[in-house]
Design a protein that fits this description.
Blueprint: H1 10-39, H2 43-47, H3 51-58, H4 60-71, H5 77-104, H6 118-130, H7 135-142, E1 144-148, E2 163-167, E3 181-185, E4 192-199, E5 204-207, E6 213-215, E7 218-219, E8 245-246, E9 251-255, E10 273-274, E11 278-287
Helix pairs in contact: 1-5, 3-6
Length: about 300
């Protein structure tokens, strides 16, 4: 009987473990590249040794921010939502592309020689990523700011718990007009206030019948309310000191739209305010407990 001497092929024995190791390594590369680009756009592509692609993917981000600053598209609810959706979507795309590149790119054991332009490209990508605009940068460049309103003093125009977008540059080169809503800093509190301008310098403002306000002898009428505001209860304030008076030069007379519940110019401790106290202008509601008010312009 002849005994067959069958030698086992070591390649076959190691094929499965090697495949498992390769797959595990690819998952790690893909995950690391994706996470890097998620937090710092373009760094995942640099990890994959794709500096040109990193630069091409990162450059549109500051371009988008500059475009938003120049065109002021963030001061319309629809275009603001579209802009931020595009910005977030592009960042996710960069991270996804980095993860895909990490999965498909086979890294050699020894790094190949790099072209002369590679290191300058890496430096440019890192600089652009480091200068990626934060919220404070975006606010400074565009005058865009978002706030949550804790008070019901402007209800039904702006009610407690609603969130607004304001233009912090609205009154840098002009003064508020009668009827404008303004965001202001008052000496009585470190918090910002929102009030409506009802009296300009030289106007006469005084109390009217049934808690109304007279401006130059005419009853103050508020604009139509957008959507269905949620009814809010409040304790009425004391306006017994409010008397008819002329608005001093260089100041503005402000009130809250909730005439029975507002700390405003009718109260001596608040009084008329100067232009230097004005910080911006509310533009629209971007969130409200009442769905019908989301996206409403503030008038």
């Amino acid at each position: 009987m002849t005994e067959l001497n069958v030698n086992r092929d070591p390649t076959l024995l190691s094929a499965q473990p090697m495949s498992q190791r390769t797959t595990s390594s690819r998952w790690k590369r893909a995950g690391l590249a994706g996470v890097l680009s998620l937090f710092i756009p373009g760094t995942g592509q640099l990890y994959n040794r794709q500096p040109r692609k990193a630069l091409l993917l990162v450059l549109p981000i500051p371009v988008l921010v500059v475009f938003a600053a120049k065109t002021r598209i963030v001061f319309s609810f629809v275009t603001m939502v579209a802009f931020f959706a595009l910005l977030v979507g592009w960042r996710l795309f960069i991270a996804g592309e980095a993860a895909y590149g990490g999965w498909t790119t086979n890294k050699p054991e020894s790094a190949p020689s790099r072209p002369r332009l590679t290191y300058p490209l890496i430096a440019v990508v890192l600089i652009v990523a480091a200068l990626y605009p934060s919220y404070d940068d975006f606010k400074r460049w565009t005058s865009f700011a978002a706030f949550k309103v804790p008070s019901a003093s402007m209800c039904p125009t702006i009610c407690s718990g609603e969130r607004i977008v304001a233009d912090l540059g609205a009154y840098r080169s002009k003064s508020p007009e009668r009827g404008d809503l303004v965001l202001l800093q008052h000496k009585s509190s470190p918090a910002l206030f929102i009030k409506r301008v009802v009296g300009l310098p030289g106007d006469t403002v005084g109390p009217g019948p049934n808690g109304t306000i007279l401006v130059n002898g005419k009853m103050l009428i508020f604009p139509e309310v957008c959507g269905a505001p949620i009814q809010q209860k409040y304790d009425p304030a004391d306006y017994s000191m409010f008397k008819s008076a002329r608005v001093p030069e260089g100041t503005f007379f402000l009130v809250g739209d909730s005439l029975g519940n507002s700390f405003d110019s009718r109260i001596p401790e608040f009084g008329p305010v100067v232009l230097g106290d004005v910080r911006g202008k509310p533009i629209f509601l971007y969130w409200s407990p009442s769905r019908s008010r989301i996206g409403c312009p503030i008038r």
